Amino acid sequence: MTATSQPELHGIQKFGRALAFVFSLIIIAVIAFFVLDEANARFGVLAISVVIVAMTRPVAIYNRLGRAGWLVDIGLVAAFLYSAIWFFRVKQELYTGFYMATPENIAAGVLGLVSLVALSVRAWGWSLAIMAAVFVAFGFAGPSLPGILQHFGMEIGGFMQIAWYSFDGVFGRVTGLVADNVLIFLIFGAVLERTGAGESLIHISTALTARIRGGAAHAAIVASAVFGMMSGSVAANIAGTGVFTIPLIKRQGFSPNFAGAVETAASSGGQLTPPIMAAAVFVMADLVGMPFALVIVAAALPAVFKYIGLFAQVYAEAVRLDIKPLPKDQIPVLTSRDWLDSALIFLPIMALMGAFIMGKSPAMAGLIGVVTAIATGLVLNPKFRREPQRLLQALADGGVSAAQIMLAVGVIGIVLAVVNETGVAIRFATSIASAGEESLILALILAMFGALILGMGLPTLPAYLIIAIMIAPAIIKAGVLPLAAHMFVLYFAVYSSIVPPIAYGCYVAAPIAGGNPLQTSFVALRISVVGLLVPYVFVFSPSLLLVAGEFSWSELGFTICRLLAAIWMLASALGGADPRLGRLGAGQRAVRLVIGAAAMFPLPTIWVPAVVATLALGFLSRTQMRQTT
């Protein structure tokens, strides 16, 4: 979040960051001035990314392997570069259709795939590599598999052709889409962090929420949501914002586990917050075949209610713990300078949104956001002007993030190649659709668990990509509108970061908070209950998405009423406290839990009585409070 000094880097890491800086400049220059051949662009981006990751995270340093480690790094880079040269030797054969799976072609492809997967482990851990290995094994074991999993199988030549020597696998359309539209937003987020926008946002949020019970936690939610929408990784956002927000939450009296859970829930929720949504919005727009501006609009109300639910849970916890607002003498006083500094965050985002509204491409809108962020930082932040290395570090950070996400997308390309070759996605879709013929809610529950399992341990964009290919068609076939289906799976791809036993976001937040990762994940699940239920609401009431299907004002109005009722009932039931009544007994909590759950149901015979009961409880609690005062 701040331009702190970089830890001491090895010479090769410094060279890697220098290459990452150049990578950012290349991305910016291409968007602004050039049009590249698509095949060359995809391969070039992946090749640069491989070298950057190998240099910035060398196994010789991280695993203390000494000379053997350097040999591993050199071997992986050399293997990928060899496969790159070979790819261009046969590129003309790919275009003309005369490609042959010769032993030389197969060997070069294997080297490229192995080096790509091995280096992805450096950036993202083992989750991606294990997923790719499982899918590849599934592809080759097809004839031996039972039931619905059985298929004709693959042989090495055909697999290598579709995974490496085609534009359906590693160098497929998704790789091009991410390279063309997403990388600039990683640079945008890195620049915003270095301009001091994060410090300004946290300071202003703290001052504005200080008069509310649990104000520090509310401020953390705002800050993490804003920066989470620009981050491609829940874990990276938690690490960046959590070092500031988690101590603030703990100082106000919340437990370490609750502090870590708030940060994790807010950071993961940021990935679902428009206009950027961790860049998944642009991929979704392409897959659904809608203008990205409409997808942004569709994501707005679900995100609003998700955060209202989170705020309500924090407030209920503060009431239960009797955490008071900050005393007046401790409330930060906002000066005119603070409001001026708020432009560090709001002007770049407004410029970005303005570019969207004007019809600019996502890449050009991102570039306008980057330029605006740099200009705003130079004008408003004297430290940013005095220390030009901040800008260099921002571009290097953005280049490293871009390289890491490209490796993840490349590995997902291997998975997608197997999916396309075996037809497993169609079979999976047919199975869930057949369940949907009996019960749509059953199909959605199956899709939810599939998304949570496939998304565990993966960064947002790769998780959404694989789940969108595997699961979204299934619930579309079961009768769900395409946009609602894709939004549904994106929500659970993101929330896989807080679901035990993996809960990788909680494993990042818990050490910062001094809590237990597993306990933190259960608390994060509890306070995210509205966010977990909202996808079911917009599937059955698509007017909440504003642009999906046949929009109805009456349906939207009723949906908002029952969501507000559910948020209050669920927050007070799960938090164990009511703003007017204080702590609640077990019986009161059980009643409110039932009412809140009923309000979520789309059937009027269920939700109407629940809303009426909510109003009645509100009236009774207000009357009781007056009698006791």
UniProtKB/TrEMBL annotation:
TM helices/strands, residue ranges: 15-36, 43-62, 68-88, 95-118, 124-149, 170-192, 216-249, 276-301, 339-357, 364-380, 400-419, 440-458, 464-481, 488-510, 522-548, 560-577, 597-620
Keywords: Cell inner membrane, Cell membrane, Membrane, Transmembrane, Transmembrane helix, Transport
Domain TRAP C4-dicarboxylate transport system permease DctM subunit: 117-548
Membrane topology (UniProt): Multi-pass membrane protein
Example of a GO cellular component annotation carried by this entry: plasma membrane
Compartments where found: Cell inner membrane
Principal subcellular localisation of the protein: membrane
Alphabetical list of InterPro entries matching this protein: DctM (IPR010656), TRAP_DctM-Dct_fused (IPR011853)
GO MF annotation: an example: transmembrane transporter activity
NCBIfam families: TRAP_fused
Function: Part of the tripartite ATP-independent periplasmic (TRAP) transport system.
Stated name of the protein: TRAP transporter fused permease subunit
Organism of provenance: Aquicoccus porphyridii
